[in-house]
Design a protein that fits this description.
With 337 residues, the chain is an alpha+beta fold. The chain folds into two domains: 2-201, no CATH class; 216-333, Immunoglobulin-like (Sandwich). 46% of the residues lie in helices and 20% in strands. The chain is built from twelve helices and ten strands. The strands form two sheets. Strands 3, 4, 6, 7, 9 and 10 form a six-stranded antiparallel beta sheet that branches. The termini are far apart.
Length: 337
């Protein structure tokens, strides 16, 4: 037994990684299992549609924000993208658990995890959840790509049955450059871990930050309309599983005096036709407030014809969250002269 292990270090490495391979494989296969077997999370009209989760990645994605925005702005294409991604996760996860084409499955695992890391690595209210999932998935995939499936794999059975073909697929084992390539991959992965940990969370130096803890809303393009007040709001931070709840909107003059107000109950009565959403995650009226999910962006019209009687001048629009947080934007009534 020892002689066999000494003669084939890669085979021995694959044996050692078996627990990690099985669990990592299930992690990816279970995404398919949850979305298409246990529940239908690919139904755009159902609660828990995975497209909304994908939309949550948008505000602080690293490098792939334009790609995410393209898909969440085109719901039909997004559905096909999510279907394809889910099926790829199923195939890759099953291949890992079975140990079939393990090296290729390891590379695919790293690429899938890289997408998760860049898109969602900034999310996680307590333990940097998505960053850990992404970076560990990349690392595990690289380990499988080098080690292969070991004795307990379909690859091993195929190697015994078709040694010539399967040895060609595994020729990397005997490459004299393997140690240097493995070292390079380890250093690149470690560098990626440090870089993304710092960018997303300040986890290497400086001040720690977590953009998933408190809601943040950007408000801009505010203007007075004949029917009332129009503005664009975009929720860019906070927990992905919990919305921001606007319980008040105010218009203040230059001295800070309140000139108009909409209460939470009034905001909850905002007609759907007065909210123009850009993405899958939608700003919409709730029971007692206006609800802003993470990643949502919409142009909102709040009707109040009496605003047309305000004199020309500089004003400010203020949004009030149920947490007490406020966000504001300038708005002006130009002089008629």
């Amino acid at each position: 037994m020892m002689a066999s292990r000494t003669a084939s270090p890669a085979l021995f490495a694959g044996d050692i990684l078996l627990p990690l391979r099985l669990v990592t494989g299930w992690t990816y296969f279970s995404a398919f299992w949850r979305r298409m077997v246990l529940e239908d999370k690919l139904d755009p009209n159902a609660a828990g549609y995975i497209g909304e989760k994908f939309n949550h990645f948008l505000p602080n994605a690293l490098g792939i924000g334009p790609i995410i925005e393209f898909f969440v702005s085109n719901p039909e294409l997004l559905w096909w993208k999510l279907l394809a991604f889910t099926l790829v996760e199923a195939v890759v996860g099953f291949a890992l658990m079975a140990g079939f084409l393990t090296r290729a499955a390891g590379v695919a695992t790293s690429l899938l995890a890289l997408g998760i890391l860049l898109g969602a690595g900034w999310l996680g209210t307590t333990c940097l959840d998505e960053w850990q999932i992404g970076i560990l998935g990349i690392t595990a995939g690289i380990a499988f790509a080098f080690a292969g499936g070991g004795r307990y794999s379909v690859d091993r059975l195929m190697e015994r049955r078709f040694p010539t073909v399967w040895n060609r697929l595994s020729a990397f084992d005997s490459s004299p450059h393997l140690p240097k390539v493995a070292l390079g991959a380890a250093l690149v992965t470690f560098g990626l871990a440090l870089f993304t940990n710092q960018v997303f969370h300040g986890g290497v130096w400086g001040t720690l930050h977590n953009k998933s803890v408190r809601p943040k809303v950007e408000v801009y393009d505010a203007r007075f309309a004949p029917e009332g007040l129009q503005f664009t709001a975009s929720r860019v931070e906070g927990a992905d599983v919990y919305g921001s709840f606007l319980i008040g909107v105010r218009v203040l003059d230059a001295s800070g005096a309140e000139k108009a107000r909409w209460t939470g109950e009034e905001l909850a009565q905002t007609p759907a036709a007065d909210i123009s959403n850009d993405y899958i995650a939608k700003i919409k009226p709730g029971a007692h407030s206006l609800v802003l999910p993470l990643g949502a962006k919409a142009t909102v019209l709040l009707r109040k014809p009496a605003l047309s009687e305000l004199p020309a001048g500089a004003y400010s629009l203020e949004l009030i969250d149920v947490s007490g947080a406020t966000w504001s934007a300038p708005v002006e009534i130009p002089s008629q002269s």
